[in-house]
Recover the amino acids of this structure.
């Protein structure tokens, strides 16, 4: 993901890449050459502190882990050098959901250094939260929200297969849920609280369920072949309650080759309210390039924002940055 | 439209209606009683200056006309009393498109009085611009955009029928285009420039075409019956060019009872780019309640904003204001 973002950023007017940090991949290589582009004059380093000290970036994009416990120190390192930060860690989409104290500390440290911090991505960060929020803007009343993201895990590698329990028996899947090796989707808690806080709802509780999607036929993926009877994916769903009523339902069945079972992929949002709304994006917005796009495109709105920890609901509309990014940032600063 | 907005605002926590201005309807009546609600203690007046002086609103919603030439003085009157303004005049969605000098003057006067001004609505303001902009946030590249809003004019009254040429012969329709009585959709120029400015595109030109939709069968509307051979509506389309290439195409066929011709209504957005995206909202978001919702829901983001003339691309995501509007405004101020 970091490489994908670097490739897009390198192609943008008004952006200069001043440093690149990696634990192992491409270390010592020129970033551009490592990405198959022309040389960028930036050597990939595994020394984060030295790179930040020399690069002095206006903004740092971090693509390392899903969890705040892993990325908080990486974020602080950039913030302490006066850099704005965009993270694609799922828990960063609404840090207060899992880690209210860390969220407070991030906000405090960002304000102290005059920079801002944002978690974004396709999901959480867009499909199952920001896009839903924006749609409710056309409603005078919202009774309940139901959304579903049906995607295809076929292109992904072994790590994703393991965390979704792909290839296991149904019994192994259940055991994996118990011992934490099968995770499903990370981000429902964040999407729920992002939606609720934006709409002025106070959630009583969020419930989550993960059930195995058992293949009825052979499912071919790029890194795995799932025989019939084995687990092809994880159907993860979440329900958010206000005053005892289920008001937000989010469904995310992720599986290898859903087409084999004649399941069509797509992103779907249904709002019960005034007016009722039914939206479909078919096929689904692809997760990899979608997350890269959001991270890269939120650069201008985030750098233009006031200091502090932000969410997608705090900033101006996301947009593709097709012009000079520096000029677009200045324009957004003018109207902030 | 003003009555619809007042009805929704009267139902919101943290909102107090302090005045109501109307040219003729309900003048002298209690606003609540006039709307069929319980009395609100606000007498509808046709004296705008006296009402503003007494009501001293934080925000004024104006629903009077489509054109800046009609609403500019009404907006200034509110701004001069220190009120923020939301207008549903179509030209106000991006005032610089039709009236760059007035836009500059509005921005200057708003900043002078420390208030902000926004034009919004379902279209322009949301479907064919803000929603498109937000979707491009999930794209790393955008080659072109095609969007279409297919709606049903059946519920509308004689004014809309006249401006869309409904009931005319094809020859009368063409004559109406010539003499300005058939207008079609007001807002394409605004949507085009709103999209382009948000994405960093510089439009060479915008072309518009209006063609009659001739009924092949009888079309029944609430205020009119269109016999076969007469005009059932206006297909208005617009094309925006960058570097000689058509990059934005917006289509808006508006007609009475499209179902009679087996035309399904809906809002559709197609983005050619990386990734390509295809979105459908079926049926279309209804125009009346959708515009009321956006005007009422942008209250919190607008009052929280810095002074000046704003567009939907400058402000945080629209959202339904389901909590206390004053508290939601303060929250948005904190993260601005």
């Amino acid at each position: 993901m970091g490489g994908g973002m670097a490739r897009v950023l390198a192609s943008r007017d008004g952006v200069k890449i001043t440093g690149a940090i990696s634990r192992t991949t491409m270390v010592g290589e020129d970033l551009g050459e490592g990405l198959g582009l022309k040389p960028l004059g930036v050597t990939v380093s595994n020394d984060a502190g030295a790179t930040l000290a020399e690069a002095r970036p206006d903004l740092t994009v971090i693509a390392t882990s899903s969890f705040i416990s892993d990325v908080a120190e990486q974020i602080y390192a950039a913030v302490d050098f006066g850099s704005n930060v965009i993270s694609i860690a799922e828990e960063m989409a609404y840090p207060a959901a899992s880690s209210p104290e860390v969220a407070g500390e991030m906000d405090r440290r960002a304000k102290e250094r005059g920079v801002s911090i944002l978690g974004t991505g396709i999901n959480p960060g867009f499909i199952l939260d920001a896009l839903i929020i924006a749609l409710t803007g056309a409603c005078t009343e919202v009774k309940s929200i139901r959304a579903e993201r049906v995607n295809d895990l076929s292109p992904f590698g072994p790590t994703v297969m393991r965390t979704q329990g792909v290839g296991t028996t149904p019994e192994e899947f259940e055991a994996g849920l118990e011992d934490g090796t099968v995770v499903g989707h990370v981000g429902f808690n964040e999407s729920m609280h992002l939606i609720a806080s934006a709409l002025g709802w106070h959630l009583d509780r969020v419930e989550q369920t993960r059930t195995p999607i058992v293949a009825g036929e052979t499912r071919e993926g790029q890194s795995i072949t799932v025989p019939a009877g084995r687990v092809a994916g994880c159907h993860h769903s979440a329900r958010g309650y206000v005053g005892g009523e289920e008001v937000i339902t989010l469904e995310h069945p992720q599986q290898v080759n859903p087409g084999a079972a004649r399941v069509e992929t797509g992103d779907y949002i249904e709002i019960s309210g005034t007016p009722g709304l039914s939206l479909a994006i078919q096929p689904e917005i692809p997760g990899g390039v979608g997350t890269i796009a959001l991270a890269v495109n939120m650069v201008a709105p985030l750098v233009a924002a006031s200091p502090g920890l932000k969410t997608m609901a705090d900033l101006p509309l996301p947009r593709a940055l097709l012009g000079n990014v520096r000029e677009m940032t200045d324009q957004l600063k003018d109207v902030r």
